[in-house]
Amino acid sequence: MAENKAALGSAIAGGAIATALIEVLFDKKALTLDEARTVLDRAMRMVGAYAAQANGGFEASQIIGSLLRGRFTARGTTP
Fold it and tell me: What is the value of pTM for the model shown?
């Protein structure tokens, strides 16, 4: 049980750090919108293989999708 908590904690921390990094680089204009979307698209492809099989895969794809539809949408400017 403790192993599951550690794995889940690592996954949450990794996702939070990666998201924060993309946002900071985008805010500093070190990443363009297209580059940020490319990173998220690649991440979506990576989790896509696990979306139907692994616990949390579907949820991971939903989180990435919400970033692509939200802050990093291709429709117009970002907030």
Answer: 0.81
